[in-house]
């Protein structure tokens, strides 16, 4: 792995405009389980019809199913701490190399870590809105409400509150901004994504530079132009980037 980590460090060192696409692997490394695995949140929440959780029509009929899941999810989010890889991205942002992060995750962990330019294309949990009057609520307010009621209701009008998460049937967010970020990049880091969910999986191909993919598990190469792929690494993010960051520091010291 050391040679690949060294090559990654060299590409980062030479780059002036890095874009990141992050997926579930960024979050599982921080202690947030995936949704569908044997130890996933669906299993832990004892939910029998998980396909309905993010179904927008079903949410309006019976929001209690979603909030059964969401209560458990928020427990994990509030305990989660940013990983080494999160912090390395912040370093690159402060150096002016990293221009932005597109994330498929809804836990807002990049923002918690301190990243400033983050496009949550599937939405996030920090902001919540009343579905009737559109009053905004913070994540902390939702957690407090869920201690007293199964489905959080608006203080203004009694409407059901919904997190700013993209449900099935809703368009993804920040797609135009994400495309521009990728097009203007000279290096794309795909971190913790298997690249199977579109349109996110199609974004890295927009770069004029190279693409590095680091993911523990299989990665779909359907939307990856072979000539742009520097390498694909099957490894835990922190394990790989601890080594890559060390090599990167050596290059900066020369």
TrEMBL record:
SUPFAM superfamilies, per the entry: DHS-like NAD/FAD-binding domain (SSF52467)
InterPro entries, per the entry: DHS-like_NAD/FAD-binding_dom, NAD-dep_sirtuin_deacylases, Sirtuin, Sirtuin_cat_small_dom_sf, Ssirtuin_cat_dom
The enzyme's E.C. designation: 2.3.1.286
Keyword NAD: yes
Native species: Petrotoga sibirica
Source species, domain of life: Bacteria
Binding site for Zn(2+): 130, 133, 154, 157
Active-site feature positions: 122 (proton acceptor)
Taxonomic lineage: Bacteria, Thermotogati, Thermotogota, Thermotogae, Petrotogales
Protein name per the record: protein acetyllysine N-acetyltransferase
Keywords: Metal-binding, NAD, Transferase, Zinc
Domain Deacetylase sirtuin-type, residue spans: 1-254
Top EC class, one word: transferase
Gene Ontology molecular function terms on file: histone deacetylase activity, NAD-dependent; metal ion binding; NAD+ binding
Pfam families: SIR2
């Amino acid at each position: 792995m050391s040679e690949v980590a060294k090559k990654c460090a060299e590409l980062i060192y030479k780059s002036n405009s890095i874009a990141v696409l992050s997926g579930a692997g960024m979050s599982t490394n921080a202690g947030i389980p995936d949704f569908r695995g044997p130890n996933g949140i669906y299993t832990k929440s004892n939910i029998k019809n998980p396909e309905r959780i993010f179904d927008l029509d079903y949410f309006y009929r019976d929001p209690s199913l979603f909030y059964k899941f969401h209560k458990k999810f928020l427990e994990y989010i509030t305990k989660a701490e940013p990983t080494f890889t999160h912090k390395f991205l912040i370093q690159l942002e402060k150096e002016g190399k990293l221009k932005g992060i597109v994330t498929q995750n809804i836990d807002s962990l990049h923002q918690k870590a301190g990243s400033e330019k983050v496009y949550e294309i599937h939405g996030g949990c920090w902001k919540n809105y009343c579905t009737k009057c559109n009053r905004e609520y913070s994540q902390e307010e939702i957690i407090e409400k869920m201690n007293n009621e199964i489905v959080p209701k608006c203080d203004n009008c009694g409407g059901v509150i919904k997190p700013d998460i993209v449900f099935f049937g809703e368009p993804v967010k920040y797609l135009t901004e994400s495309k521009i970020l990728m097009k203007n990049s000279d290096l794309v880091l795909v971190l913790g994504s298997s690249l199977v969910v579109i349109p996110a999986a199609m974004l890295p191909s927009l770069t004029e530079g190279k693409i590095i993919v680091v993911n523990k598990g299989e990665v779909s190469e359907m939307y990856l132009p072979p000539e742009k792929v520097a390498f694909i690494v099957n490894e835990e993010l922190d394990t790989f980037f601890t080594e890559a960051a060390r090599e990167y520091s050596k290059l900066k010291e020369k």
